[in-house]
User: Fold this.
Amino acid sequence: MLTLNNISKSYPGKKNAVENVSLSIPRGEIVGLFGENGAGKTTLMKCILGLHRYQGEITLDGQPLDRKNIEKLSFATSEHTFFPALTPKDHREFYADHFKSFRGKRFDALMEFFELPMGKKVGSFSTGQKNQFEVILALCQGADYILMDEPFAGNDVFNREDFYKVLLGILEPEETILLSTHLLEEVSAFIGRAILLHKGKVVADKSMLDLEEEGKDLMSFVKEAYRYKADRVLQALDKLTEPEPPL
Amino acid sequence: MKKKLRDLVPPWADLSAHLSGLIVGLVLCALASYARFQSLLNHAVEALYAGHIGESPLLEGAKMKYFGHLICGNDPVYSWYSAPVFTGFSLLFLGAAILAAYNYSGFRNGSKSYYLMRRLPDKWEYHRRCLALPLAATLAGLVLIPVLMGLFYVLYLHTTPAQCLQPGQWEVFRDSLQYLLLPVHLRFWEVSSISYFPS
Assistant:
């Protein structure tokens, strides 16, 4: 269980990028983390990973996150964390050296499935291939909690669909995914829970089963949580298309 | 062993090129220091003779410069960087600092691989890979300076005619070494009374 207790984070010039966030994410869940740009999704993930200092407490299976259990977390981001000057083969060796639970077999299978060249420098890959490789590394590190921050930005729709299918097919029961993305409709079919952030705060947290029982889909749930005004666009268009008053 | 050494440089770096660079840098610094010292020593010894060395007699009452004066021109030794004999090492230390900065920047170039480095189970791996070789170069330089100074001192004693040597050489050498390694500006308690060479 990944537990966040009153997590707050401020930047100079941006007070409360994350404000009093408390969450519990049990093993085996696939959780979607949603929110507008600047809502605090990335900041929250970086707090969990120890890349940012924060106030509050984060524990993993009851233990504070430190060097002893940090390898239970992996991270895939559209900013990328691989070494561009190394080949996938070099990365395989690096990960196997540093992460005891590295899943070499899974790595080889995913590399083959996505037809990524093992001997080519990752820096020379296309954006889509880089994203695929980034996610492959996160999935193969051997972590129990896999954090993904907009991992498919720049991938085409077929590519993303392939990935969702593979993800669902390979994940083991104890593996947990925390996925931040704007692609609500695409991920709604395979996430089990949706957490919504707004201005650094959790504004909604619901399981997909509950939503289903309530007869709502993810998009309407998100719109409702954000108090999205559907007629906002029409009103704006009306104003914009009004004839200019005579001078 | 090679793998352990490879963990001392960034993952993409060529270990042998780094080590070769380090060794070549140290050798060049040592050679430059030797060449400079030899030139200063030759001039100082020549000044003791009326004409050419070996052909002319020693000047009457001629005294050889103190070793400390010799290695840093006519000024007292303030630090390794103010001693002309060792200025090559300034470049070595500067190069080491640049290499460290370059290593760190490499983890931000083309991706943010420092995120990965910062969440490795070994807390120090990131800094070790960036700093190990620059620090090794700096340390090797700091060790090499007194070693060279010792060798130069032996050369100085061997080359200088015995009757031209001034008394108190050892004290001056010891002081030179001390001030070479701990520059005078760091000795704030002594700044007001700098006089460690007999005039």
Observations:
- Residues 125-159 of chain B form the longest helix (35 residues).
